[in-house]
Amino acid sequence: MNILKIIIAAAVALVVGFFGGTVVAGRDGGKANILFLDQQKVLLESEAGKSIDEQLKKLGEEVATELQTIQAQIEAEGQQLQADRENYSEEELARRVQFLRQKAQGLEQLQQIRQAELQQARANAIAELAEEWEPLSEDLYEERGGFVLMEKQNVLFSNEEGDITEALIAALDEEVTSIDVVKPDLQGQLLAQQRAQQQAAQAAAAAQQQPAQAVPAGENQ
After folding, report:
1. Is residue 183 in some structural domain?
2. Are 163 and 38 in contact (CB under 8 A)?
3. Which of 9, 39, 106, 196 has the largest count of CB atoms under 10 Å?
4. Which of 64, 31, 56 is nearest to 146 (CA)?
5. What range defines the domain where residue 157 resides?
6. What Pfam families does this protein's entry cite (predicted)?
7. What is the CA radius of gyration of the chain?
8. C-alpha–C-alpha distance, residues 132 and 135, integer Å
């Protein structure tokens, strides 16, 4: 049973029940047991969810330090170039200014890459945590005779009787207390891809430059 399918089916069932003017019956023919789950609360309050947040905060601080260090180096080089500009010819000064601009552009690209790495690391960790809580939420759904399960944040009003969030957090904390957050090396992957493209282009160019092999006499007969 897929818990996401249950949540999606819940919205459909409520729409049919509301506009069709029918009463949705439960499994035993009685009142339907509609359950609610606040997934955001699970992320924020479960021990594993807290571990994800703490690791992401640490990774974010490391990235900020890295970027600030590079930015400080570029600014220092710019100040030094400004102080020494009289020592360079116009051509040399223009070359050095262009080099600094390229460094600044590289910093912007690196910032985008690091941001993407953090976002992917967070998404991967949350997906892993969701895999842990999905069977537990399905167990609670079955135990409480649920007919539909809805995301609580999408509901205007609900009673606490149908909320399985706290029970899920308690069950999840017994199963797992930490999820490893791994930052992917998107920069390394990008560089490897660029090298592969360059090698392929060089190989293609070399193949075009090779002279065509002569066909021995008599083979065309």
Report:
1. yes
2. yes
3. 39
4. 31
5. 3-194
6. OmpH
7. 30
8. 7
